[in-house]
Amino acid sequence: MRVPALRALILVVFLLAWEAAARAANPLLYVPPSAVLPALGRLLALDSYPDLVESLLLTLREIAVAYGLAIAAGLGCGAALGLNRVIGRAYGPILGALYAVPAVVWYPSLMLFFGLDAASKIAFGFLLGFFPITLAVLAGIRQVNPHMLAVARAFGARPLTVFVKVMIPAMMFTLVGGLRTGLALSVIGVIVGEILGSKSGMGSLINHAYGLFRTADYVALVLVTLALVVGSDAVASLVERRAQRWSD
Amino acid sequence: MSDLIVVERVGKRYQTTSGPVEALHDVSLAVGAGEFCTVIGPSGCGKSTLLGMLGGLVTADAGRVLVDGRPVTAPDPRRVALVFQEAGLFPWRTALENVEFGLELQGVPRERRRAVATDLLGPLGLRDFAAKYPRELSGGMRQRVAIGRALAIDTQIVLMDEPFGALDEQTRLLMGEWLLEIWRRTRKTVVFVTHSLHEALALSTRVVVMTARPGRIKSVLELPMPYPRAMESAEMVALRARLWGEIRDESLRAMGER
After folding, report:
1. Distance between the two ends of chain A, CA-based, in angstroms?
2. Contacting A residues, span 9-48, partner chain B, CB-CB under 8 Å
3. What is the CATH number of the domain that holds A58?
4. Residue A15 domain-assigned?
5. Over 50: is that where the pLDDT of A248 sits?
6. In this predicted structure, what is the pLDDT of residue A10?
7. By residue range, what is the domain housing residue B198?
8. What ipTM goes with this model?
9. Residue of B75, B91, B153 with shortest CB distance to A153
10. Closest to A156 (Cβ–Cβ): which among B105, B135, B149?
């Protein structure tokens, strides 16, 4: 009971401070919450941006495709690197080094390759989501108790069976953690991609509002995007907790 | 005489960071069908390596291992089942599903393997624990599930590598009695690795004593006396003293090596 109350308290304090600060400063740049609320109402009523629903759906579609590709490639690469010692030693460090590069530096070339439409956003969301998933599979495979693998082998399991019946469930917790991080990063990739250059999607609306100094609309759009991200992360965390209970 | 398991002059070396280590040297052994053969010896004498060879998990550098007349090259779950010191249960499977594991790998249909595993839970003393996960079971129960997993595939041979080594002494004694019961009922051929003199004398038809590294066979003790054995009888006490005499020197050597 206390935790929600404390959370509500910090929100109220934050909103009041924001209101006071914004009123004292330039309201065009520092929009107060009292102006955001009506803007949010206009936005949700499709007054300010009639293409809100389309944009939201486009962004969601891009995220879904980017994330789906990241999962497929991440599982495949992680398994290849984790199960084959030679391949793992050859390419594992390269993967780690690439992950350390701030991914946004790749974005201009992705736009050159894939154009300004959805493809470059998907590519960027994929790129960001791919690494944590691959690295989670790699770490997960290393964590599997070798004893369980010996048992599986003693009972006649072949390598693929070992992977599916023992490794995947044994590393489920680590894997789901990586999948959750991957989802968050895929979402970021797609939205950042849209903000950096596109004609449609939530990022493009945000960019538009921001560019025209429609600050209240801009904040309202950010709030909608935030709801999208928080919602997707809540689903992921639910899945994660289920997996935690399931493994040990 | 046709022996079910034949070990012919096997040897094994391991490469370690501090140079090669000879785990087994020129070991020969034959185990007949229905025997309860215990291998005992100091730590690091290659007992587990020998058992791994019988199970097809470890390949010999020299010599060969035959099961039922055929050389062992890989695990053969149709003829040989294994139980390890660590139960090695899968934490995401219930007790029942763990017992089913081997049958599942062999492609036995779900209803059939469920029936086999359910029937096993009774003698395992786990009838009320079918739906429990390993973390909800005691150490002894977990080890019984692991033994159930081995019994479920109904092989002629069961290899056990210190199955009760991680249990407290009371549990250990009870598990020994329980295993004896199972073995006498099923008449399987058991090769049992242990550190425990008590287990060796209470359970086995034959005890094989191994030397400190490199493991060789030091002596073989035949135990034809009936079960259950009165471990406090003069005969068993004398046998225990004799067995301890055999092992003591080797254990001292093994300790000195460290």
Report:
1. 29
2. none
3. 1.10.3720.10
4. no
5. no
6. 92
7. 1-79+189-258
8. 0.86
9. B75
10. B105
